[in-house]
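We store amino acids, tokens; thus:
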Amino acid sequence: MLYQPELLPPTRHPGDHRGVEGFRRDPESRAAGRRCSRSQRALLAAAILPLSTAYSVSEATGHEASLDDSFQEARFFYVTYGLVVALGAAIVLVPGIPLIGVLFFTQVVNAVLLLPLLVVMIRIARDREVMGDYRNGPVGQTLAYAAAALVGLSLVALAAASFF
């Protein structure tokens, strides 16, 4: 059998017009595409972030659930999801609140909470009872602690930059 790539179907996405002669988007459609994709990204984030929080809180408290479950089956999950969405909306709708400042604050909180979470994950990854044959070896453990140390140094630098 001979290999003839010209007989294979194209592997590009149908919306990918790069390299197609004569194809030009007018400025209006280009701007509409950018606006649409930004709003789509915002809507996706507005749905996904509260969902991931609701999943995490539900599993951490022993109330495993999913979107496939009805409200009666997964009341805790859906209430958590609604509360997270309402809390986010309430924070954003506070009059005069600097939204960029809120974004920076949430990222600082994420960084501060990351360090203890990393340490717990590193300890779990080293535990033979939990991980069995897949536990971290000495090299993996060293790299994991190096990553945690880098996060810790970044937090120290953040604190120094904030207070001095």
